[in-house]
Amino acid sequence: MRILVAGGDGFCGWPTALYFSERGHEVAIVDNMIRRQWDEELGSNSLTPIYSMEDRINAWEDKSGKAMKLYEGDLTEYEFVHSFMQDFKPEAFIHYAEQRSAPYSMIDREHAVFTQMNNVVGTLNVLYAIKEIVPDCHLIKLGTMGEYGTPNIDIEEGYIKIEHNGREDVLPYPKQPFSFYHLSKVHDSHNIMFTCKSWGIRATDLNQGVVYGLWTDETKLDEKLYNRVDYDGVFGTALNRFCIQAAVGHDLTVYGKGGQTRAFLDIRDTLQCVELATLNPADRGEFRVFNQFTEQFSVLELAERVKRVAEEQLGLTVNIAHLENPRVEKEQHYYKAVNSNLVDLGLKPHFLSDELIADLIKTAQRYQDRVKTSVIAPSTTWR
Amino acid sequence: MRILVAGGDGFCGWPTALYFSERGHEVAIVDNMIRRQWDEELGSNSLTPIYSMEDRINAWEDKSGKAMKLYEGDLTEYEFVHSFMQDFKPEAFIHYAEQRSAPYSMIDREHAVFTQMNNVVGTLNVLYAIKEIVPDCHLIKLGTMGEYGTPNIDIEEGYIKIEHNGREDVLPYPKQPFSFYHLSKVHDSHNIMFTCKSWGIRATDLNQGVVYGLWTDETKLDEKLYNRVDYDGVFGTALNRFCIQAAVGHDLTVYGKGGQTRAFLDIRDTLQCVELATLNPADRGEFRVFNQFTEQFSVLELAERVKRVAEEQLGLTVNIAHLENPRVEKEQHYYKAVNSNLVDLGLKPHFLSDELIADLIKTAQRYQDRVKTSVIAPSTTWR
């Protein structure tokens, strides 16, 4: 299958591209390499050393004998989108190419506007290009579980049947996003749903949980293929950040009480889920929503688990610090989300294990000289 | 009260500015005059002659002895927004300053992107400026009933209580917008709701129906104060367009079966509703949603009513044409929307009367030399 991975330089995109290439698909990467510029802007970096895209693609060809195409440019420029779509004519368009950090979107007005424009216009351009050039192409769009917020009822997958005053309908699940970033994904979802209905686009919206882990079968083959991993207060996410904090002797930074419950998954399951969606495409005109996660944890639970593993298995001393919460969010709430669509398609989850946590901490120890402790604390407040 | 009317050159904005000025409020208008440029772009015009903003404001001062301030510029430019907010320090910000035509947003990719960027970024800038400069200012934002689409259950005002698997919550009402324009309003609503929660913004989202009519007590005082009224396939809306078509002997253009039911209101009620919202502001942190309409009609019902009034009262011959529907929408559907919030605040509706229809047709006859019949047919298709 001709599979295009937009955002193929990123934490999820790079291993996805390798995964599909390894399995014999024809893979092209689209990226504007902006994630590397954000590191510059924020003075942060990946825990692991990462190579240039050219080095990565060459290393992969050396290892596997498989070539991947690269289209370097920005989805917000339609001429660029039009030209690579015309050239590659993808059958599946896997769309990770968005600014994906909530704190980054909350830095200030410029970052909020940038995030929404970048994400929404990029996706609009992709939709128009599919309509014009490859109307049968399946759009697999990464959304986020954060679109739903924390409602006091179960979170269904994209839609909910509502009975009201003696009538009923199945309607889009109400959204209560947490940040300008999460809002941008809600805007995308509404735009995509509309084009499925109006133009017959086929789309799958993958509302992904927080991704942890680092290694996949392909990225660990060679240092040049290593995946990036973030630990800073802006791009670092809960579990990975805690493991790296434990490794370098930094307090585990829990925001507020830590009762915030979120959905999580192993990066290997990200690849598995995206593959399941790709190999089982949505119908023409169908807007399909899958909740892409395997387990739920509260932030405090994760911190306590990392502390236990670090102390018991690695002999480290770990302290959990409850920082004043920089975000506006409930710190104790009901949370129960459904994730049966991907399981029904055959997802075999890698549940969180102590081994994975220990391995992540050891990786962080190996690269601890690269860690800049000054960027770990949250620097952005919601208020 | 210091009241700012953004979009004060438009069909709703101009009469709103006069209405508040007449009632002794301190009024400032913000507009970039782009609505007049869209007429140029589309080769269309207002049925009624409209004067320049300078002439309008001077004529109003001559008639009433009341001055209005004008800030000319674009809400997507933050320096401009910052400067007029700093200068005027509004207590109420009435926000009409958006691209408000569904067909315009569907012309092509550029118009879709323009509509979403213009509307979403403008509103983000207003939210940031309120937060920075006048945190107590009440944002009164014009949304649209079209945000809800046509669900098979009653449409509530912004929120709905959902019982699900033995639990319940009051959640944002699910949105199924019809066009990239309607989508832009949904994006706005989500962004505003988030800032109410996170920053304590006070906001009222007025989900307005289709506005008909033309004259208000103030706009009819002098030709220089006349309001614009649109009859073309892009900016013209159902009832007004039918009256003008009847006047010039054009078929009434019903799209498809005409069973599409929508919510409507008289422009005099737009002013009354906006006044009620302004004089009864939302609390800090409250995101209040009012459905702003007085009656529901199907498009075919309205066409038949215009035909009857035109034939019986004015002796015209009127034909109703069912055009192939350029839009993707249900032509027969359930529709029942709640509008009690504004009624509870004291709204006294002007229900649709045969007199108003006859008067609109007579106005159109008076200006029939201005009508360009070539712009009446729908020129944009959804597919």
Average pLDDT, all residues of chain A: 97
List low-pLDDT spans of chain A: none
What structural class do the secondary elements of chain A suggest? Answer: alpha/beta
Counted by DSSP, the helix tally of chain A is: 12
Shape of chain A: globular
Strand content of chain A: 15-25%
What is the fold named in CATH at topology level of chain A? Answer: Rossmann fold
* Text of the CATH class of chain A: Alpha Beta
Short description:
The first copy, chain A, is built from twelve helices and 14 strands.
Describe the protein in words:
The structure is a homodimer of 383-residue chains. By secondary structure, chain A is an alpha/beta fold. Chain A has a single domain, classed as Rossmann fold (3-Layer(aba) Sandwich). In chain A, 39% of the residues lie in helices and 19% in strands. Chain A has 12 helices and 14 strands. Chain A has a 7-stranded parallel β-sheet with strand order 3-2-1-4-5-8-12, sandwiched between helices. The first copy, chain A, is globular, with a radius of gyration of 20 Å. The termini of chain A are far apart. The mean pLDDT of chain A is 97. The interface between A and B is large, with 48 and 48 residues.
Summarize the topology.
Two copies of one chain form a homodimer.
Chain A lengths: L1 E5 L6 H10 L3 E6 L2 H9 L10 H12 L4 E4 L5 H11 L3 E4 L6 H4 L3 H25 L4 E7 L14 E6 L2 E6 L7 H20 L2 E7 L1 E3 L25 H11 L3 E4 L5 E6 H13 L7 E6 L2 E4 H16 L5 E4 L16 H5 L9 H13 L17
Parallel strand pairs in A: 1-2, 1-4, 2-3, 4-5, 5-8, 8-12, 9-11, 10-14
Antiparallel strand pairs in A: 6-7, 11-13
